[in-house]
Amino acid sequence: MSTQPSRQLETFDNPQPGRDYTIRIRIPEFTCLCPKTGQPDFAVIHIEYVPAERCIELKSLKLYIWSFRDEGAFHEAVTNQILDDLVRACEPRFMRVTAEFNVRGGIYTTVIADYRSDDWVPTSPVTLP
User: Where in 11-125 does DSSP place strands (E)?
Assistant: First the structure.
């Protein structure tokens, strides 16, 4: 497998496609460039999803995230692009991408983008005593 940045996301068959379960991924070293200044922006990316038939392969996700390092992008645009690309790759029942950007000019930015499959109905939360 390549050790260079890549926009190609790989998937694998969900081992439990008949069950709703959540996969949570935390990426603490996301970087891209400010499109105005060219200076680096740093963020922690959180991905949460309920897979359907396919799951995201983590090494390809790492190389995909790395591909933004030298690209200028507004926080809102890059968060939504990541969501769109991941949804296109694995067609989940539900997915949420949260990007927590580090301070720049005294301002922290968090962008949250969601996707929900038209035919998915979430299960009711379980409350334990």
Answer: 11-13, 23-33, 40-50, 54-56, 94-104, 107-116
